[in-house]
């Protein structure tokens, strides 16, 4: 199946966002017990929401 270049970019973006989420979920606190802001619950949540939006764009293109 052939998808448009734009849809392919949306899919690639979703994949990269989910890879970032996976990395954040495995992040360990530093020696003071702090987790960097890019690995916070809020950041993970935002990336999940954005990945879902990207996947919805791909889904729309497949209709």
Which helices and strands, and how do they pair?
Elements: H1 5-25, H2 41-62
Helix pairs in contact: 1-2
Structure commentary:
The chain is built from two helices and no strands. It is mainly alpha-helical and 63 residues long. Helix 1 packs antiparallel against helix 2 (41-62). The longest helix has 22 residues, at 41-62. The radius of gyration is 15 Å and the shape is elongated.
**Spans of 5+ residues with little confidence (pLDDT < 50)?**
none
CA(first)-CA(last) distance: 13 Å
Order of helices and strands: HH
Radius of gyration: 15 Å
What class would the helix/strand composition place it in? Answer: mainly alpha
Q: How many distinct beta strands? A: 0
Helices, by number, come to 2
Strand proportion, as a percent range, falls in under 5%
Largest sheet entry: none
| General form | elongated
Mean pLDDT: 92
Structure characteristics:
63 residues; mainly alpha; 68% helix
Give a brief rundown of this model.
The protein has 63 residues and is mostly helical.
């Amino acid at each position: 199946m052939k998808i448009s270049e734009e849809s392919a970019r949306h899919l690639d973006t979703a994949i990269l966002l989910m890879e970032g989420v996976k990395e954040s979920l495995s992040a360990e606190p530093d020696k003071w017990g702090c987790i960097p802001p890019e690995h916070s619950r809020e950041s993970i949540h935002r990336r999940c929401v954005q990945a879902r939006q990207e996947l919805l764009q791909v889904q729309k293109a497949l209709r």
